[in-house]
Amino acid sequence: MTNDKRFYLTTPIYYVNDVPHIGHAYTTLACDVLARYKRSRGYDVFFLTGTDEHGQKVEKAAHAKGETPLDLADRVVKRFQALWEKLDISNTDFIRTSQERHKLTVQHLFRTIEERGDIYLGEYEDWYCTPCETFWTETQLMDGNCPDCGRPTDKLKEESYFFRMSKYQQQLLDHIEANPDFIQPKSRRNEVLSFVREGLRDLSISRTSFSWGIPVPGNEKHVLYVWFDALTNYISALGYPGDEDGRYATYWPCDAHVMGKDILRFHAVYWPTFLLAAGVPLPRKVFAHGWWTVEGQKMSKSLANVVEPNMLIDKYGVDPIRYFLLREVPFGLDGDFSHSALVHRINSDLANDLGNLVSRSTAMLNKYFDGTLPAAGPAEEIDTALIEKYAAVLAEVDQQMDNLAFNRALQTIWTLISAANKYIDETAPWGLAKDPDQKERLGTVMYNLLETVRLIGLMVTPFMPETGARIAEILGQDNTNTLLDGQDVWGSLQAGQTIEKAAPLFPRIEKD
Ligand code: MSP
Predict the structure, then answer these.
(1) Ramachandran region of residue 133, left (φ > 0), alpha (ψ -120 to 50) or beta?
(2) Of 129, 296, 432, 481, which residue has the fewest beta carbons closer than 10 angstroms?
């Protein structure tokens, strides 16, 4: 059965040894916008986020603070959850890898792959980077250090369970080649392809050197490798292999795993091969976004330039931050965060373009019609052009959202905002208002303008939920009207509706 109106999307699950920063907020925010957009288009959306709590890195961080790993996790999880609430994140579920439901699935997945003959016990000797939780061969190291983060690695030799990843090399290649959209963006897909073509080694998937993890079923001396554990969250949250509430059958395979480019390989190579080995269908799409630098520099604790999202939201408001992060940089490319760019975007795109459109339109309606919306009379060419522009914009936005091209979707919406502002200049309602014979024409112009404002409100809602709700409220629409589906038709705004004169949506920010 095809479930084309279901949509399942995931963020990575975040390590609890660190408190949330703008990079984490970015991944989660992008998923939230997509989840809200899909819901507004009538999809039944399952949007998952959560925390990655096991592994040596978390164990070390907890011991350094003199607490148990679980206490540390409990504390940091609250920080993530509070931030998601503050950022208006609409996740359906929140999975913690320390939960029993997760453990059951991970152990089941291990047993399934083991029974199918693709897990064996061997001995492991390699270089391990604890901060990245990644093994490297001697030749992969850069001057003895981790090739990803540059930090020192440790030589580890231990008994370990191995997953026969090598066996799935060809099958994975075939899958990637047959499904051009499986890994996005394209440049990243090519990187993964060349990585896989170089050859896949069997993967060590258990550890005996620490204990904070999920025990290997039948051999409790071993805990499972944190990536085997973590990736499985995407099905454990659906209740796999049991399916009491039908979540798994309804939502798997996943429509989009979204993550930063640094962890694409785990999602585009490890995860699919685990699933192939277990006989579970593969996700439909894996999308890797770029990384943020801050004022031109890599974000790091030692540079003390880590951007703290709570502080930003307190200072600028949640919607401007949501808008900026998705508008400023094409999703998939790296970008730079700077306060001056943020202030510029708020002042020009939000206060000037969108804010002014809403205040001008509602002010004129109040001035010329006491705030009561007139019916539209016959359409002139300029009106038809505006209506057609809206239809074209919606179709384009739909496509861009399917490609996770958030910045382009916003640009497209903004072309409608510009068109509406231009419509005001060209129809010159203040001129029409001087001539009593033009009363009907003035009414038509006002109707078209406010109807455009309503539709713009609907389209910006996934990006800026509070702003969307505010626009709906100004237009006297109830909350259900913030959904595009069924409301996306031109002419849904009722004549006779009272519309208030809107206070500025976005106060201008003085550059300083
Ligand atoms: N726990 C793993 C993921 C397991 S998923 C099965 C993990 N966690 S993380 O907390 O380190 O990072 C999660 C996400 O934050 C990644 O998508 C990563 O790309 C993103 N970011 C961390 N720093 C970032 C920037 N400076 N810029 C953009 N995103 C970045 O990895």
Answers:
(1) left
(2) 296
Does the beta carbon of 27 lie inside 6 Å of ligand 1?
yes
Query: Is there an atom of ligand 1 within 6 Å of 131 CB?
Result: no
* pLDDT tens-digit map of 331-389: 999 999 999 999 999 999 999 999 999 999 999 999 999 999 999 999 999 999 999 99
Q: What is the DSSP secondary structure assignment for residue 293, as one 8-state letter?
A: E
Domains detected in the chain: 6-289 (3.40.50.620), 339-474 (1.10.730.10)
Ligand 1 pocket test target in 11, 22, 231, 291 with most atoms within 8 Å of CB: 291
Which protein residue has the closest C-alpha to ligand 1 atom 9? 14
Ligand 1 within 6 A of CB of 262: yes
Q: How far apart are CA 53 and CA 77, in angstroms?
A: 9
Quote the tokens at residue 110. Answer: 């291990």
Which tens digit of pLDDT belongs to each residue from 247-265?
999 999 999 999 999 999 9
Q: Whose CA is nearest to atom 13 of ligand 1?
A: 14
Query: How far apart are alpha carbons 484 and 495 in whole angstroms?
Result: 20
Q: What share of the chain is helix, strand, coil (3-state, %, to 5)?
A: 50, 15, 35
Measure 451 CA to ligand 1 centroid, in angstroms. Answer: 41
Among residues 507, 506, 499, the alpha carbon closest in space to that of 361 is found at 499
Which atom of ligand 1 lies at the shortest distance from residue 262's CA?
A: 19
